[in-house]
From TrEMBL:
Organism lineage string: Eukaryota, Fungi, Dikarya, Ascomycota, Pezizomycotina
Keywords: Membrane, Transmembrane, Transmembrane helix, Transport
Native organism: Penicillium argentinense
Topology versus the membrane: Multi-pass membrane protein
Residue ranges with Basic and acidic residues bias: 483-498
GO CC annotations on file: membrane
Main localization, broad class: membrane
Protein name as annotated: Major facilitator superfamily (MFS) profile domain-containing protein
GO molecular function: carbohydrate:proton symporter activity
Transmembrane segments: 68-88, 95-118, 124-145, 157-179, 191-213, 280-297, 317-336, 345-363, 375-398, 418-434, 440-458
Amino acid sequence: MAETNSAWDMVTPMLLFSCFCLLVGDVLFGYDTGSFGGILANPGFINQFGQYSSITQEYSIDSLHTSLLSSLAFIGKFIGCLVAGPVIERFGHRVVFYALSIISIIGVIIEITAAGTVSGSGRLVQFIIGRIIVYISIGLVEVDVTTYQCEIVPANFRGLVIVSLQLFLNSGAVIASAVNKGFSTSSDSVGWKTVTGIQFIFPVLIICFTILIPDSPRWLLSKDRNEDAILALRRLRPKEDSENGNCEREIMAIRQALQEHIHKGPWVDLLRGDNFRRTMIVLVYYFFQQTTGQAFFSTYQTTFYKSNGFASQAFTYPIISSCLGVLAVIPAMYMVDKLGRRESLFITFFFQALWMFLLAGLGGENHKTSTAKNAIVASFMLYAFSYSLGGASIPYLLGTEIPNASVREKTQALGTSWNVIWAFVTNFIIPYMIDAIHFQVGWIFGGISLLALVYTFFTLPETKGCDLEELDAVFATPFNPFRPKDGQDQSTTRKDLESPSAGGLRKANHMD
């Protein structure tokens, strides 16, 4: 049996490049989410698309239209996520990368051209359509990048690679916050058009990067293209593995381990046997990703600051929060493979609840001292840090590694589509919640975070360090959180490792 650190011996420049280059797509998602929060508060955007009030003698966008602008875009993301699985299965990851880039470019053009010539003449419907189209590409990104990474990266640092998507998401948010700050006082259309137009950069980079990377060897195996799978693997593996036949043995070992699961299954397979349990776990964590308060701070923090006595710093505080989110991903990338998925989620959900409860408690005071106001801002920022420790990114990891190989893309597609539904719901209702109960929304989001912690304890087995093929054995038996070190994980996986197929997989230094 190979040493546990043998996966690191397979790291090559092409493997690293293939793992990380397309995360520029997640920069697009982070940038769009972060930038739109600032656009909603941008004077030029408000003058273009708002309604004029004779009482206040200024333009404004009411809660209904704010909700529509924020939430309707998720229709596109839902479409992108749902179709991503079948399209990837049929055409492969690389074709989908090209397609989503073209879709993104078209959407941005539609958004920018929605501007009118004078105040109040902006075509709001056209702008929303553009956002919907952009979000189709974002939905495709979420499924395509994570499933591609999961299938080419060694198990020892699968968590690190996939969790790193949050680093790129947050980096996009940092860029967006800085750009928003630069155009925060722009009263014409140049400011918000510039913020929106920067999104052209990301799909162009994706097209350039996709030319250079290989197809997933596992996807090629699902198409019975064994020779192509070997050639793709040779591009990802060290030169000596190509020369001594290790790539051929690895492909054969993976095919043997997968056996009847080598080909893709129908949608109904998501509900059959232990796939049902695995599918439900994925769906529940995507639900928690959206309902523990992330939209509150990512999309609405600027407008929330402006309406609650922090207007002078409303564009500055989000930059600090975004930077903290980036910093949090660095320990998260280490924790997820060192401590494991369960421990990481315990930490992130506990602190998410803590800061939301603190926000709600302090915000409920009628006469806030300067110390209380500073603590409220700190709670916002510390929530962003805690969310990025695992609550934001681990659902993507679980959505790619937990499903069986035959339904991996479909499970991730269904999970992210379910995620989008809740993103739509939260983005639509949060403006009304803020208007109605203000800081008390923290009690709701904090309570859901505690629920997520309890769910993790009772239902989620530890999957760190397990090969994708080994996880079939992990989920073959019920999970018992009171069994020392998860006995099912230790015993069934050990038996699986002793089987001929798994042994061959280990000896071949397989790609997962």
